[in-house]
Design a protein that fits this description.
- The complex is a heterodimer.
- By secondary structure, chain A is of the alpha/beta class.
- Chain A contains eleven helices and eight strands.
- Chain A has a six-stranded parallel sheet with strand order 2-1-3-4-8-7, sandwiched between helices. A two-stranded antiparallel sheet of chain A has the order 5-6.
- Chain A starts with 19 loop residues before the first helix and ends in a 9-residue tail after the last helix.
- The N terminus of chain A is likely disordered.
- By secondary structure, chain B is α/β, with parallel strands linked by helices.
- Chain B is built from twelve helices and 14 strands.
- In chain B, the strands form three sheets. Chain B has a seven-stranded mixed sheet with strand order 3-2-4-5-7-6-12, with helices on both faces.
- In chain B, helix 3 runs parallel beside helix 4 and helix 8 packs across helix 12.
- The longest helix of chain B has 15 residues.
- In chain B, about 60% of the residues are buried.
- The mean pLDDT of chain B is about 100.
- The chains are: A alpha/beta, B alpha/beta.
Chain lengths: ~350, ~325
C-alpha cells in the first residue's frame, strides 16, 4: 500500500535507535508469541483445540512494544486475537496453552478459551469476541481511573474492522468528551475477516477519525518494535498527564488467515510474500545482528523458546480437564463480601 | 411507616446508597441538570455533584459499556435508561458483556452494576416505546432481574441491587412512578432480598401470580372476585431472576388453581416459565389448566382504546379466575 496516502506520518524504519538488551528482551517476547501461535495452530489441526483460533502471527511487535510503553498498573483490553498481548504482558505459555486446550489450569480455567483470556493480576482485562463491544468497557476502566484520580492508563486494541461499528463510535465519543486516560489502538491488518479496507471504509487513513472526537491521532507502521514502543509511549504519557485520549492506527499484516478455518483466498501469494519482507521478527533479528549480537546467541535463544513452548504444550496435554464446579460457581459472584 | 411515591422510594434508595458508598454513581441521559426525565433523580446532582451524577449523550451502548467497564474495576454504577426500550441498542453490552464477564474470567472479575428505568407501556406512547422487556433479560444466566410493584419493594430491592456484586436489571414503570405506598420510616433500613416472593393477599380459592404494573390490576380483580365469594391468593415474585416459586407451589397445593398475570407478550418469558414450573411441581394439586392473562401478542398500537384492549385488564383476570374455578 502506498505510504503517501492520506495524512499519514510514517516514521523512517530503524529510528529511534534501539537499546541492545531491551531489544533482545523484546525479541524473546515476540519469538515466544510466534512459536506459541505456531504450536497452537498445530494442535488445533490435531483436534486438541476447539472453537475459533485467531493467530497473532505478523503482528507481534505491536503487543510487545505496547506492553513496554505501559506501567504494570495500566489496564489492557484486546479483541479475540488475544494470545499475543497476554503472553507479552507476562502470562505463562503454560497458562495460555492450557486455556486453549480447555483445561482447569488455563488462565480462564477453561471458561473462556482462545478468545477470552484474562490475567487480572497483570491488569490484562480480557480478550473480547464481539467486534466493537469492548471499546466502551475500556472507556469504563479509564472512567474509573479518572473518578478515583488514579495514575492508571487504559489501552484498548481492536482491528480496523471495528471502526465501522457503533460501539467504536460511542466509546470514542464518550472518551473524547470526558477526556478519559485511554489510548485506542487500531491494529489495521488490512482485512476485516476477508474484506479488504477499501471495501469496508470510505477513509483509508483511519487516524483521521481521531479528529471527530477531539483526540490526537497518530499513524505508523507495525513491524518495528522500538518505534511502536516510542510512539505508543507518547500516547500513554499523554493519557497519564491528563491530556486526554489518543487514537492510534498501526499498519500491520497478519500472515495467517482470519482464523484457522480461513484459507485467505482473498489475497494474493505475492502480497503475502511482500508483506513478509517486513516480518517483525526478521526486522528485529536483523537489528540485533546490526547491534553486534552474535547469530549463535539468537539461535540459542530460539531453541530455548522452542523448548519453552514444547513444555507448554506438554503441560496443557497433561493438565486436568475444566471443572463443572467452576462453571456453576461463576455464573454469579458471591454476595457475602459486598 | 410513612407514605411516599414510587419515584421517591427509588430516589431515597439511590441517595442512601450513594451516601453510604462513594463508589456508587448515577449515569444516564438527563439524570443531572434536567433532574431526570421522570424526576426519579431529582435533587441528586445538587447533593452529589457532577462527579457522581453524570449526564451522558444519547448513546446507550456507550454509557452502558462504560458502566460495565467501571464496575469490572471496582465502581458500583447505576445506569439509568430513560426507558428500557432504549436498552435494546445496549443489548450486546448487557448480554455479551455484563452477564458473561464473571464466568469468562473464571470468577476473577465481577460486575456490580444496576441498569434501571421505566419498563412497559406508559400511556399511548405506541409501538417503539411500550416494550415489556422482562422476557429479553430474565432468560439470561448471569443477570438478576427485579420488577417491583410497590414503593416499599422498589426501595428495598433497589438498595439490594446497588449492593449486589452482580449485574441487575431493574424494571420500573412510568405509570407506577406516581403511585403512593408505605415504606419504612426514615432511619429504618430495609433491604429486600432477591428471590423472595411476597404473598400480597391471602385466599383459598385461586392463586394469582403477578408482578409490576398488572399486580395492581390483579389486586383489584381479587377484591371484585371476593364479592362473588372467590378468595384469591395473590403472590408477587418481585424478582424474576432469581424466581422464588416455593410460595406459589405451596399456595397451589391449597387452592388447586393458578392464574399468571403479566404485562409482557405471551410467547415465552417469565409468564411461561412460571406456568411450566407450576404444572411440573404442582401437577397433582391442579384442578384446572394454569391460565395466563398477558399483554396481547401484538405490537402496541397508539390508539387508547386499543392500548387498553392489549394490556391485562381486571375483567380478563376475573374471567380467567372464574374459568379455572369452573364458576363460569
Amino acid at each position: 500500500m502506498a505510504p503517501e496516502r492520506g495524512s499519514c506520518k510514517l516514521a523512517p524504519v530503524g529510528k529511534p535507535v534501539p537499546d541492545e538488551d531491551h531489544l533482545l528482551k523484546q525479541y524473546r517476547s515476540m519469538r515466544t508469541i510466534r512459536r506459541f501461535e505456531e504450536e497452537a495452530a498445530r494442535n488445533y489441526a490435531k483436534g486438541h483445540i476447539g472453537g475459533f483460533l485467531h493467530l497473532y502471527i505478523g503482528q507481534e511487535a505491536i503487543a510487545v512494544g505496547a506492553v513496554d510503553a505501559l506501567q504494570p498498573q495500566d489496564y489492557i483490553f484486546q479483541t479475540y486475537r488475544d494470545h499475543g498481548i497476554a503472553l507479552a504482558r507476562g502470562m505463562t505459555p503454560e497458562s495460555a496453552m492450557a486455556e486453549l486446550f480447555g483445561k482447569d489450569a488455563g488462565c480462564s480455567r477453561g471458561m473462556g478459551g482462545s478468545m477470552h483470556m484474562f490475567d487480572v493480576e497483570r491488569n490484562f482485562l480480557g480478550g473480547w469476541a464481539i467486534v466493537g463491544g469492548h471499546l466502551a468497557l475500556a472507556a469504563g476502566t479509564a472512567f474509573k481511573a479518572k473518578y478515583n484520580q488514579e495514575d492508571r492508563v487504559t489501552i484498548c486494541f481492536f482491528g480496523e474492522g471495528s471502526t465501522n461499528i457503533g460501539g467504536f463510535h460511542e466509546a470514542m465519543s464518550l472518551a473524547g468528551l470526558w477526556k478519559l486516560p485511554i489510548v485506542f489502538v487500531c491494529e489495521n491488518n488490512q482485512y476485516a475477516m476477508g474484506t479488504p479496507l477499501e471495501r469496508t471504509s470510505a477513509l483509508d487513513d483511519l487516524s483521521i477519525k481521531a479528529k471527530g472526537y477531539a483526540m490526537v491521532g497518530d499513524r505508523f507502521e507495525g513491524h518495528d518494535v522500538t518505534l511502536i514502543e516510542e510512539r505508543l509511549g507518547e500516547a500513554v504519557d499523554r493519557a497519564r498527564r491528563g491530556d486526554g485520549p489518543t487514537f492510534v492506527e498501526i499498519l500491520t499484516y497478519r500472515f495467517r488467515g482470519h482464523s484457522m478455518s480461513d484459507p485467505a483466498k482473498y489475497r494474493t501469494r505475492t502480497e503475502l510474500e511482500q508483506k513478509k519482507q517486513l516480518d517483525p521478527l526478521q526486522v528485529t533479528h536483523a537489528q540485533l545482528i546490526e547491534l553486534g549480537v552474535a547469530e549463535s546467541q539468537l539461535d540459542d535463544l530460539d531453541l530455548e523458546i522452542d523448548e519453552l513452548i514444547d513444555a507448554a504444550v506438554k503441560f496443557a496435554e497433561e493438565a486436568e480437564p475444566a471443572r463443572e464446579e467452576v462453571m456453576l460457581g461463576t455464573v454469579y459472584a458471591p454476595e457475602d463480601d459486598a | 411507616m410513612r407514605e411516599i411515591r414510587y419515584r421517591e422510594a427509588l430516589r431515597e434508595a439511590m441517595l442512601e446508597e450513594m451516601d453510604r458508598d462513594e463508589t456508587v454513581f448515577l449515569m444516564g441521559e438527563e439524570v443531572g441538570h434536567y433532574q431526570g426525565a421522570y424526576k426519579v433523580s431529582e435533587g441528586l446532582l445538587d447533593r452529589f455533584g457532577e462527579r457522581r451524577v453524570i449526564d451522558t449523550p444519547i448513546a446507550e451502548a456507550g454509557f452502558a459499556g462504560v458502566g460495565i467497564g467501571a464496575a469490572m474495576v471496582g465502581l458500583r454504577p447505576i445506569i439509568e435508561f430513560m426507558t428500557w426500550n432504549f436498552s435494546f441498542v445496549a443489548f450486546d453490552q448487557i448480554i455479551s458483556n455484563a452477564a458473561k464477564i464473571h464466568q469468562m474470567s473464571a470468577g476473577a472479575l465481577r460486575v456490580p452494576i444496576v441498569f434501571r428505568g421505566p419498563n412497559g407501556a406508559a400511556r399511548q406512547v405506541a409501538s417503539q416505546h411500550s416494550h415489556a422487556v422482562a422476557p429479553f433479560y430474565a432468560g439470561v444466566p448471569g443477570l438478576y432481574v427485579c420488577q417491583p410493584s410497590t414503593p416499599r419493594d422498589a426501595k428495598g430491592l433497589l438498595k439490594t441491587a446497588i449492593r449486589s456484586n452482580n449485574p441487575v436489571v431493574f424494571l420500573e414503570g412510568e405509570t407506577l412512578y406516581g403511585l403512593k405506598g408505605e415504606v419504612p420510616d426514615e432511619g429504618v433500613e430495609e433491604l429486600i432480598p432477591f428471590g423472595v416472593s411476597k404473598v400480597a393477599r391471602v385466599g383459598s380459592d385461586c392463586t394469582i401470580v403477578t408482578w409490576g404494573r398488572p399486580y395492581h390490576v390483579a389486586m383489584a380483580a381479587a377484591d371484585a372476585l371476593a364479592k362473588d365469594g372467590i378468595e384469591c391468593e395473590v403472590i408477587d415474585p418481585r424478582t424474576l431472576r432469581p424466581l422464588d416459586l416455593e410460595p406459589v407451589i405451596a399456595s397451589v397445593a391449597k387452592t388447586n388453581r393458578c392464574v399468571v398475570v403479566h404485562e409482557h407478550w405471551p410467547y415465552g418469558g417469565p409468564g411461561a416459565e412460571i406456568v411450566d414450573q407450576v404444572q411440573r411441581r404442582a401437577f397433582d394439586h391442579l384442578d384446572a389448566p394454569v391460565e395466563r392473562v398477558s399483554g396481547l401478542d401484538v405490537p402496541m398500537p397508539y390508539a387508547l382504546n386499543l392500548e387498553e384492549y392489549v394490556l391485562p385488564t381486571e375483567e380478563r383476570v376475573i374471567d380467567a379466575v372464574k374459568r379455572v374455578s369452573y364458576a363460569k
